[in-house]
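Handout, section 3.2

Students often ask what a structure token actually looks like in practice. Rather than define it abstractly, here is a full record for Transcriptional regulator. The first block is the sequence as you would receive it.
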Amino acid sequence: YKEINHGNLILLADFYGVSLDYLFCRTENRAEINTPLRELHLSDEMVALLKSGRINNRLLCELATHKDFIKFLADIEIYVDGIATMQIQNLNALVDTVRHEIIERYRPGEDDPHLKVLQAAHISDDEYFSHMVLDDLNLIIRDIREAHKKDSESAPQTTVANELKENLEAVENFKGSRDEKLVVLYCKQLGINYKNLSDEEFRWLIRILKKSKKMGTPISQRKKR
């Protein structure tokens, strides 16, 4: 093969506006190259975690760059800083005041529907923000999962059990001897199109499979009526 000289590689990198490291797949950063660590405002613990290999940094990047991540982080910040806690407490205090006034004035029973409504209107800031943050996160991870459905590392949409069931149903409809049906089943399991086999290849496959101890297992145990 013909080697590309260093000067041409530099010209190629300049043409695409990337670094040589990016061109050689030694970095995933196309634009942000050699960004000073102090500009990222990361703690020593976070830097150590990112370098440790204990977490999936690519997945973390996808989470952080998702369009709804800023909202997710803002909701967490509101809860952590207690920004909305006072307002929620004020609303709960107002509900409690109305409830006590109704009790003092009308003496309703414990099962009174109006009291039940006021009781249900009481807000727990912990539960409220837990649901809000969880909803934010669910939207993000669903989008990421959808984006990776076609990846080779992702789990297949069809389970092994469902695939075997479909293959068995197809073999049941195949017209042929029991041995031929078993050959068709094994072909389907191995991803071989049995229709592309020649008669000789089909016969040889039957002979080979007959050497297996499992060839004695019938395809269906259903009794004939």
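Discussion prompt for tutorial groups: The chain has three domains: 6-54, 70-147, 160-216. How would you have guessed this from the sequence alone?
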